[in-house]
Specification:
The protein has about 260 residues and is α/β, with parallel strands linked by helices. Helices cover about 35% and strands about 20% of the residues. It is built from ten helices and twelve strands.
Length: about 260
């Protein structure tokens, strides 16, 4: 088995670039996954794993064999190398190099009455990760990123989604492409915005539905507001006029799930 003990190894340096640079992830078509649970979820989500790196003090080789059946290349690394690559303070001593997916809208496989979450222009990885967790919890059909401002395989998204990056169907496109996709599929979409909107709980989400949220700073772009089946808002009873986008998305999704009888 191959071993790497130096953090200055050129291969390890290339992996650091995968962690730090979206350009490196795009050019190579790969990204790093950290943690046993996350890797297991990636496998269930049909992500292709190229290589496993492990720290023998934290995870036994036989665990790798039972998980991968010797079908994936494995590299034993030193504590120095692991600390160089690991993004979290406490993990199980395992990292994987995985292939990214294409994220094409045409690849989505939807039910007869789909429920979709659309995020437009969300920048903060933590918010994206939190919404992926909610999407998994609500077991919706798909998550669509419109005009994405952050690379989906950013390690902060992988981490904050606690593996739900791999449990959701995810696609990406421009706002115009996503709107046209929804129209072509005859999916009603409800845009969360203060302008010309009705209270979210007054709408019927039992038909094919997409719920659309935007950034906390600027909200949704005009196209979403103008072309929506209906603009919706969450009534605010305090002194502020907005809430965290991931919280708002959770409220909307679970109202739709409530109407559909969970």
């Amino acid at each position: 088995m191959k071993q790497i003990t130096s953090a200055q190894n050129p291969f390890i340096k290339s992996l650091v670039q995968l962690q730090e640079k979206a350009k490196a992830r795009k050019q190579s078509g790969t990204f790093l996954i950290e943690g046993l649970r996350e890797i297991e979820l990636a496998l269930k989500g049909n992500y292709s794993i190229e290589t496993i790196l492990f720290l023998p003090e934290l995870i036994a080789e036989k665990q790798l064999t039972s998980l991968f059946h010797n079908k994936v290349a494995t590299i034993e690394i030193s504590k120095e190398v692991y600390q160089k690559l690991a993004y979290r303070d406490t993990t199980e001593g395992i990292l994987a190099i995985a292939k990214t997916k294409s994220l094409q809208l045409s690849d989505l496989q939807l039910s007869d009455c789909p429920l979709i979450l659309v995020m437009e222009g969300i920048e903060k990885p933590g918010n994206i990760g939190a919404m992926l967790r909610t999407a998994d919890a609500a077991h919706i059909d798909a998550v669509i990123l419109a005009n994405p401002k952050t690379d989906l395989y950013n390690p902060n998204i992988v981490r904050s989604s606690v593996g739900c990056l791999f449990t959701n169907q995810i696609a990406s496109g421009s706002t115009d492409e996503v709107i046209q996709y929804l129209l072509d599929k005859k999916i009603n979409f409800y845009s969360a915005t203060l302008q010309n909107s009705n209270a979210y709980h007054t709408q019927d989400y039992t038909t094919p539905t997409a719920l659309v949220v935007g950034t906390e700073a600027t909200g949704l772009t005009e196209a979403w507001r103008e072309k929506a089946t209906q603009n919706i808002n969450i009534p605010m009873q305090g002194q502020i006029d907005s809430m965290n986008v991931s919280v708002a998305a959770a409220i909307l999704l679970f109202e739709a799930k409530r109407q559909r009888g969970f």
